[in-house]
Structures are given as structure tokens and as C-alpha cells.
Amino acid sequence: MKITGIIFALLSTMLISAPAQGENGGEIKVGYTFIDEVGNRSVNQATFNDYEGLGLSFERFKYTLNNGFRLRADLNNITLNNRNMTLGLGKPGLFGIEVHNDQFRKMYDFEGGAYTRRHKTGGSIWFYPHRYLKVFGGGAFIGRSGTTIDLLNSDAYAAITDVDYTQQSFNAGVKGNYLGGMLQFEYRGTEFEDKISSVRDQTRNQVRFDGMMPAPYFQRLIITGGYKHFESKFSKSKFGISANTVWGGARIKILPTLNASYNFLFDRTSSDSDFVATDNISHGVYLNYENPHKTGVTIGYQYGINDDYEDEVQAGSYYFSGFCRAINNFEFRAEYGIKNENVKDGVRLLGDEEQTRHKISAKYTNSKLGSLGIKYESKNRTNDQIGSEVDFRRFATNFSITLQGKYPNFSGGYSYSDGQYANRDMSFEFRDHLIYGNIESKECKHITMGVGGQYYRSKRDLNLESFMLHFQAAWEFMKGHRIEAIYKIHNFDDFLYTDRYFTANIVEMNLIKELSF
């Protein structure tokens, strides 16, 4: 575990290098996780990345030195294979360094023998050689290996595939800011290596420029623009794909509360296989009115063209959104959008399409009591050529109760979703219910407790049921020490298949020491 050694070395160096100032500290946690599982390991994503064993964590750590240097760390499960660690060191206005390492597992079969593990290690660095100039860079190494199973394969036996690849990437750039203007250049490179089939090995490169500046002698007008060149090439066949993108726009302040903006984008993508390129062009115009803390309205129109020499598709989109906080403690929001895609030349497999969406919400907030919110949203997609329609609706409500004194805190919510798909040959429908809630007690005689969970039920063409419950308690003894116990229950059932069920009981015991410097 080289990354773990580097992290601890940096921690030790910083702690002894200079005196500290302000509030500094964090938590050290040592614990053990017990897992008892029954059923199909591949159906419950919430437990894919849980491991049994001894865990060591160093959480929410921050340390500021008198010379302005700051160290922060969040190192979770250092000793287990689901570790997630971040370490940062820097001084505001001078430089910053951050390194991270995490791992994740996903299972694909009943026993959990077919799975993949992904590990990612990376970092970034930036510094200011001049007050108006920032230099930055970074890199990452990703590795994924294991075995996957195609659960959607129509054959009698699912397809088993071995996975073993690595991906290395890095970036470097420079950014300048002066008098409200900005100019940035960045280069990114990626190398992908498949250890099973070298045919998939490839390299990717990207160069990007971004700029923004107020118009000379007219500070109300802000001009933006940029250019990006991307190319990807396979190492063996030398086959490549490239894209060039140009964008720009302007934003003008008409009144203190009224702004107007325009933006455009042009992208041309081509490959080595032929001389035909695909062009994507879009233009957008928006008008925004906002009275801070009271009301706001945005309306817009976007027009786009997709042209691949023989076929051309045009799309027009209208957008509206608004909010209102004119009534004390209440906030109302609304959003609506519609998009029409029409084949103007040639043919397209899907033909013409129409998409609409809208969302409305209301929220009441009281600092002494809590909050209550409701939301409704819908999406619709219609295609007359293939006779299909997708319709989705969701209603959700949530609440929180934060009473003063020794009363516990309550939070929870309910969500109902309804979805339908139909074409000339088939139809599919589902209805989902989700209920969740949580109760947290205030400290009483150095003891805190909590209980919560969620219940999910899907009906119609799906027939799923799952729930999760968690119970936790903590006891603080001496000063800055506490013992914590967490018990979780996971359950999943797919009533359409006899082998798609799962139950897990997870117990976690931790000894926690608070650090203060």
C-alpha cells in the first residue's frame, strides 16, 4: 500500500514542522465489521462494496500552521479493500496539492465469485508564480480487473467476460485572470491498455482554450469563447477519430435585474474510415430577470442542426423556469421545456421526435421547526414513425423536524413514480413507491441513538421489493472518546425470479478518539 505510506509520511511531516493556529483536529476510528449474507450477491448494489474485517479511519482532519499552510485529510477504511482516501496540502493564494485513492467492487453472480474490482489513484497540483497567473496539472491511474456476466443475454447461459485493463491520464495547463478577464489553456492525455486484447489499446489527446473578457469601454457586455481539439487512435490498427469544437457567446446586463445572453457551438467529428464528417451546430438565446431573494424568471430558445452529409436533423427547444420567494418562509419553483427534432434531409432510424418535461416544487422552511417540501415532475417522449411513447411522472414530498431542547430530530419522505413505454409491438409499465425516514436523539447522559430506513416497492411489469433498516448508538466516555455501534439490515426480493433474493445483516463496532490541537 504505497499510497498509504505516502499519506502517513506527509501527515507526520506536517505535524512536527511548525506550530499550529486556530481550531485543528479530527477523529481516529478503529473498528470491526461483521457481515452475514444469504442469497444472490449480485442483486443488492448497496452491499457490493462492503467488506468484513478490521477498519482504521482518520476522518475530518484539518491542521493549519502559523505560516498559513493547511493540511486536510479524510482517510476512510485504510486497512480494507473499500478504502476511500483524500489528502490535501496547500496555502491560499500560493499553491495546493491533493492526492486520492479509492477502490470499488461490483458482483455479477449468485455466489459473488464473478466480480470486478476497480482501483483509482490520482492527484492534482496548482501554484501561482504570479498573482494573476495559475499553473495546474494532475494525473490518475485506474485499474479494473475481474469477471463480468451479461445478465441481459438472451441465450440459455449468460455470457462470461474477463476484464483486465488499465488507464493512465494526465493534464497540465495555465490560467490567467486580469481585470475581469480570463484566458486558460489545458492539455489532457490518456493511455488505455487492455491486457486481454491489445486490439483495444488506444491513446487520446485533447487541447482546449477558454477565454472570457468584458467588452472594451462597455463593461456590461461579457464575451466568452473557446476551442477544443480531441483525437483518439487505436494503437494496432492506427484507426482514429477526431473532433474540433468552437464555441462562443455574450452576456449583457440590460438593467440591474435583467440580463440577456447568446451562445453558439460548432463541432465537426470525422474518422479515418472515410471523408465524411458529422457537423453539430447550435444557437441559444436566453433572457433572465432576477430580483434577489424575491423572484426570478428565465426564458430561452435553442436551435440545433446535426448534419452528416447525407442526412440532416433540425431541433428547436423552448425553455422556461422561475422561482418566487415573495411569501415569508416559502419558496416556489417551476420549470418547463420542449424539444422537437425533425428530419429535414435524408433519413434517420428514429425519425421525428418530440420531448417535453416540466417540474414544479414548493418548500416551507422555519428555522425553529424544520421544513416541508413537495415536488412534481414529468417527462414525455413521442415518436410517430416507430409508434412509440415514453411517459414518466414522479411526485415526492419530504420533511424535517428540528425541535429545540432535548427533543429528537425527525426527517423523512415519500416518492411515487409512474412510467410507461409503448410501441406498435409491445408495452411496459411500472409503478414505484419509496418511503424513507430517520430519527436522531439529542445527547442524554453522554448517549445518542438513531434509527432509520427506507422501503421500496415496484409493481406492474416489475415486481420488486426491498428495504433497509439501520440502528445506531454511541456512548461518550472520558473526554473525546466514544464507542459506536451500527446495525444494518438489507433485504431484496424480485418476485418474478426464484433466485433473485438477498438478505444481509451488517454489524459495525467502532472506538473513536477525537483529536484537538
Write a structural description.
With 517 residues, the protein is mainly β. The protein has one domain (26-54, 113-516): Beta Barrel (Maltoporin, Chain A). It is built from one helix and 26 strands. It has one helix at residues 2-17; strands spanning 25-39, 53-64, 70-76, 84-91, 95-107, 115-130, 133-150, 159-178, 181-194, 202-215, 218-234, 240-255, 258-271, 277-291, 295-307, 312-324, 330-345, 353-366, 370-383, 388-402, 409-422, 427-440, 447-460, 464-477, 481-494, 501-516. The chain has a 26-stranded antiparallel beta barrel. β24 and β25 (481-494) form a beta hairpin. The two termini are 28 Å apart. 5% of the residues are buried. Residues 14-18 have low confidence and may be disordered.
Q: Which ranges are low-confidence, i.e. pLDDT below 50, for 5 or more consecutive residues?
A: 14-18
Main sheet attributes: strand count, strand direction, barrel closure: 26 strands, antiparallel, barrel
Average pLDDT reading: 90
- Which class in CATH terms? Mainly Beta
Helix content: under 10%
CA radius of gyration is 28 Å
What is the H/E order?
HEEEEEEEEEEEEEEEEEEEEEEEEEE
Report the count of strand segments: 26
Structural class: mainly beta
Sheet-strand content, in percent, reads: over 45%
CATH superfamily, by name, is TonB-dependent receptor, beta-barrel domain
From the 3D structure, determine the CATH topology.
Maltoporin, Chain A
Q: How would you describe the shape?
A: globular
Distance between the termini: 28 Å
**How many domains, as an integer?**
1
How many DSSP H or I helices? 1
Please tell me the CATH architecture by its name: Beta Barrel
